[in-house]
Structure formats: C-alpha cells, structure tokens
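[Q] Does anyone have a clean structure-token version of this?
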Amino acid sequence: MSERSRCYFKIENKPISKKTGYTSIEEYAANIGTNMSTDKPKVKIYNQQVVISFKATFSRELEKKLQHTKKPSYYTVRSKTDQTNLDRLIDKNKLPLFRNDLKTLAKGGNYQYKIVLPLKKQPSAKEKQILMDGGNYEFLFLNEHKKVVNVMDFLDIGLP
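[A] Here you go.
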C-alpha cells in the first residue's frame, strides 16, 4: 500500500455525555416514589397543630438529581380529596410549604421531613383519631412555581 492511499483517523476518548444538571424537579418527578424509601411517619397533635414527621432515604441517583436541580422544589401535605372531616379541622389558609434543602442531608442520603399543619380549633377525642391517621393525608412535591408535580400516598405505612 502506498503512502497516498492510507487513511488516518483521529480517535478521541470522550466520555459518553450524561445529564448532570436539571432545571426543574419536573424533569424527574414521576420517578421520585420509586427512588426513595421512608420509615413509618409519626403523626402527633400539639396544641392546635398536627405534626407529621418521617425520615426519607433517597437513592444515590435521586439524591444527585435533587442536588443538581437549578430551581427550587417544595413539599407539603394535604388531606385526601375524600376526607371532608379533615378539611373542617385543618386551617387551609395557613398550610405550610417547605423548601427541599438537601444541604441538610445526613450521610447516606437520609433526610428528615417535618410538616406542621395548623388546626382551626382544639380537636375533640374523635377528631384527634381522624387527624392522627396518616392514611388521610397525601405528601406532595411541588416545582419552582409551587405547582404539584408528584402526589404520594404513604403517610400511613411508609415506603419500603
């Protein structure tokens, strides 16, 4: 083969591009529930407030996505649509909205969620039973515009 007929190719070792940054939680919201686990939430009543707390563990993949999302995301709790008794007790005008702050993540991707819901009045014994049943609530992830992007139903048993 003569020198003129040889072909030369420049080979470059470039890593396969993987998405490392996200603009909004909306880009992966549908997969949140399958990439996290929680302990069984604790529901308590103090004065005129319902306090729901639980520990969540994110998969390494979800943790990285949350940490590399440019716009903020939020979470809150609301009563399920069929829980009119709960709606009469919880002050919806003062429902809290919490920002996901992954700087508070402990080692291993553990994150402590604590939601405080204000009540309209001091509940009766029967109303306390309704309020303390985690199955009456839904956990919500919201985008930067505070629009719901994921609804999860686990506050009675947790996520394995």
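[Q] Thanks! Anything notable?
[A] The helical segments are 60-67, 84-89, 125-131.
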